[in-house]
Amino acid sequence: MASVVPTSGTASFLSRVPWWRQIRVRVTATLVGLVLLVAGALFLTNWQVRRAALLAEFQRWVSAVGGTGAVALDGDAIARIEVEADALTTEFAEAREVLDTIRRRVGLTPAEIYVLRPVVDGADPFEAEFVVMTHDEPFVGNRYIIRPENRAAFSASMRGGAVAFTGIYGDEHGRWISAYAPVVDSTGRSVALLEVDAEIGRYEEKLREELTLEALVTLAATLLVVGPAFYFGNRLTQGARALARAMGRFESGQMDARVELSSRDEIAAMADGFNRMAQSVGERLRLLPFVSRFTAQAVEKSRMVENWLEGVEREVVILITDVRGFTAASRQMKPADLIEALNHLLAMQTEVITAHGGDIDKFMGDAVLAVWPAEGDGPAQAARCALALQAKMRETRPAWARRDAAEQVRGEVALGAALHVGPVVTGAVGSEARRDFTVIGHTVNFTAHLCATAGRGQVLVTDALWARLPEELRKRFGHVTEVRLKHAAELTVVRAQAAAGAV
């Protein structure tokens, strides 16, 4: 699905994301959740439907048993059974035989089928008495009060002359559904009711069996969907994870990190955007060595300062160096040798300046402009740097002799340098198309003119800077001299290091 440029030893964004927050896990959980939701909804719906269907089935069943039994009974004979002694009559025996036959055929117990009738002179309108039953010991004439849950069906059947049934109700013996069917005499008058009770344990057991089966099917479906859900979730997020890995490598410094996806979806579009961004940033980072620290700091500051491009005045120490004799020597050099020799000189100065805490503002041909803060140890660092540059030029002479390009200028070049402290303006100079963040002002120009008067291997320090140096460095610049600077009407007094001679 996705192939990524191979790179090793890189940190991945995925390591920062807990497993339960990873997209593939969330996609899998979502799919499984949907399956469970749909299966649960179907399960509950089917349970309600089956429950209602089974309830209706049992209601129809007790109604059918009651209706059939009531028709089979002799209403005139039932009307003649009134007291306990009538249990010995032929009418009672025949009616009991009918009930017992029905009971055995449909699987009822003796307590679930019997004939009763309302008590005409009873204190309660819902008082009834037993007429015929299938128990071993008859209890003709015994009375009881119809349960509140059954009264509607009892009245409807007695008065309406039709079979009526109850809902589910419970007592101390269990949970039931009952049906009442009118027993009529030869004149069509209702003389009693046949009551059929069905203990619904069989109904609930059947329902439990069906629900258990459905639960097992739902569980099996859920387990079956987990694997495919994780697979498709993994496929769906493979591109995102490849992109995250590439971003992790890019963050760790691998500017060549790229991600290639074969899909044509939104993640692939994001990957293309990342590749373009990584290429662009990589190109800019390759230019970083050409940017001064001042510029980098200014860009960093721009996040917090609104008008960062505007000039800001600050006091700094300026060091300007110039390679004496290099211009004349370069006239005889090949272009490649010229660049090699110049880069060698500038690289050496860069190394020394950076080691002493300075910031190279710019290269000007074979000249270098470096800056230190004027406060703290900045002046001393700049002075030590200037002395170290002269020493480094002398130390590198043997190395120059081994280089073809350097051999052409060996013995002909030396370093002249000047140090000064004062206010400068730092800001972005140029146009919208090209800008440099640099230092400008009188202090910079003054230092440049002073550097032009420095001898070969000499460092000139202005009195303003010399006064800020520690005693041990002041002694190094003990030679007082006067120089005439360009465009200056008066001589300038400076402290000079004794010339060390050319390289």
Roughly what percent helix?
A: 40-55%
User: CATH topology of the largest domain, what is it called?
Assistant: Alpha-Beta Plaits
Overall morphology: rod-shaped
CATH architecture of the largest domain: 2-Layer Sandwich
Rg, Å, rounded? 54 Å
CATH superfamily assignment of the largest domain? Nucleotide cyclase, GGDEF domain
Describe the fold and architecture.
A hairpin with an 8-residue loop joins strand 2 and strand 3. The protein folds into 3 domains: 17-60 and 211-286, no CATH class; 73-199, PAS domain (Beta-Lactamase), CATH 3.30.450; 291-496, 2-Layer Sandwich (Alpha-Beta Plaits), CATH 3.30.70. The chain is rod-shaped and about 155 Å long. Helix 5 (201-251) runs parallel beside helix 6 (266-286). It is of the alpha+beta class. The chain has helices spanning 23-72, 75-79, 90-106, 151-160, 201-251, 266-286, 293-301, 326-330, 335-355, 378-395, 397-401, 404-407, 442-453, 463-466, 471-476; strands at residues 2-4, 113-118, 127-133, 143-145, 164-165, 169-171, 174-184, 190-199, 259-261, 312-324, 359-364, 367-373, 414-430, 435-440, 459-462, 479-484, 491-496. The two termini are 64 Å apart. Helix content is 47%, strand content 22%. Strands 10, 11, 12, 13, 14, 15, 16 and 17 form an 8-stranded mixed sheet that branches. Strands 2, 3, 4, 5, 6, 7 and 8 form a 7-stranded antiparallel sheet that branches. It has 15 helices and 17 strands. The longest helix has 51 residues, at 201-251.
Layout of strands and helices, then pairs:
Blueprint: E1 2-4, H1 23-72, H2 75-79, H3 90-106, E2 113-118, E3 127-133, E4 143-145, H4 151-160, E5 164-165, E6 169-171, E7 174-184, E8 190-199, H5 201-251, E9 259-261, H6 266-286, H7 293-301, E10 312-324, H8 326-330, H9 335-355, E11 359-364, E12 367-373, H10 378-395, H11 397-401, H12 404-407, E13 414-430, E14 435-440, H13 442-453, E15 459-462, H14 463-466, H15 471-476, E16 479-484, E17 491-496
Parallel strand pairs: 13-15
Antiparallel strand pairs: 1-9, 2-3, 2-8, 3-4, 5-7, 6-7, 7-8, 10-12, 10-13, 11-12, 13-14, 15-17, 16-17
Helix pairs in contact: 1-5, 5-6, 9-10
